[in-house]
Specification:
Layout lengths: L1 E4 L9 H8 L5 H9 L3 E3 L2 E2 L11 E4 L17 E5 L3 E6 L16 H8 L23 E7 L2 H12 L4 E9 L6 E4 L4 E2 L7 E2 L10 E9 L2 E8 L6 H8 L20 E9 L6 E5 L4 H11 L5
Parallel strand pairs: 7-14
Antiparallel strand pairs: 1-4, 2-3, 2-4, 5-6, 6-7, 8-13, 8-14, 9-12, 10-11, 12-13, 14-15
């Protein structure tokens, strides 16, 4: 058990922010998992992460062991869109987590990949073999996986050099004024709502998003979106900053739905195995195609 006493200077801080300062060697998701499991107590009683400290509280934390250092293989389906000796492109469904973290240790895309492929790159570590980039849990679509360390390094160079072209399909709430646009607002973590990112601050990491209107409906606009950077929640944050949150994205102000309408449709890259340009497309999932079909009915036109 680890014990702290909140100082007067800690008054006004949330419990989870206090723990992040005091236990900086642990990830934010791990600390939140401890709080949620009742392993962090304030004055002897379990407390919520959002508890506001007043100073003088006795805080006790009972850490648990970190998750296993190796992703365990699980014989679950993987839809392969393309593969060669260096890279595999797979179609990730909405709701599937790419790799372990934030309390999720099984059923991830990585668990499936290590079951289907004998060798993947080790650069991402034992919990993220082969993972060069990622998609949010609620986002579906194509994702690249490196089979060797050399392929991983080559793809990482392409991503950092912005030679990988990533195109998404998104439905947003409301009617966008322009038929096309470019958003270059920096993205940072929201200082108040820590699960969100924001483009409303002057500071943050540079981010580039371009969009083109594909189709307009009553109350919605269907977009093709290209990103030049890969920041956390980038498309969701940038579009929400225009007042047009991605449909179904409750976190950024949209009306709740079964899933968010964001799909990684197409990716173009140079294969480290063949040195040829490769373009891979992931078909629009049936639930999103049905959503569009409902909007195209006469009552919605």
């Amino acid at each position: 058990m680890i014990e702290f006493t909140a100082a007067p200077a800690d008054a006004g801080k949330r419990l989870d922010h206090f723990l992040q300062e005091k236990l900086a060697g642990n990830s934010r998701s791990r600390l939140q998992a401890w709080v949620k499991a009742g392993l962090a107590k304030v004055n002897g009683a379990p407390a919520k992460a959002s508890l506001i400290l007043h100073g003088g509280e006795r805080i006790e934390v009972t850490p648990t062991a970190p998750p296993p250092l190796r992703a365990a293989p699980e014989d679950l389906p993987v839809e392969i869109l393309y593969e060669d000796d260096a890279v595999v492109a797979v179609n990730k469904p909405s709701g599937l987590v790419v790799h372990a973290g934030a309390g999720v240790e099984s059923g991830t895309l990585v668990n499936r990949l290590v079951s289907h492929f004998q060798g993947l790159s080790h650069i991402g570590g034992e919990l993220r073999p082969g993972i060069v980039h990622r998609l949010d849990r609620g986002t579906s679509g194509v994702i690249l996986v490196a089979r060797t360390d050399a392929a991983h390094r080559a793809l990482a160079t392409q991503f950092s050099g912005r030679s990988v072209e990533k195109t998404y399909l998104a439905l947003v709430q409301g009617r966008l004024r322009d038929d096309a646009g470019r958003i270059e607002k920096p993205i940072a973590r929201d200082p108040v709502h820590r699960t969100r990112m924001t483009a409303r601050l002057a500071t943050g990491r540079s981010a580039l998003t371009e969009f083109r209107v594909v189709e307009r409906f009553e109350g919605f606009t269907y977009l093709e979106v290209r990103i030049g950077t890969g920041r956390t929640h980038q498309i969701r944050v940038h579009l929400a900053s225009l007042g047009h949150a991605v449909a179904g994205d409750k976190l950024y102000g949209a009306r709740a739905a079964e899933r968010i309408f964001l799909h990684a449709w197409r990716i173009s890259f140079t294969s480290p195995a063949t040195a040829e340009r490769v373009t891979v497309e992931a078909p629009l999932p049936s639930e999103l195609a049905q959503w569009l079909a409902r909007l195209r009915q006469p009552a919605h036109v």
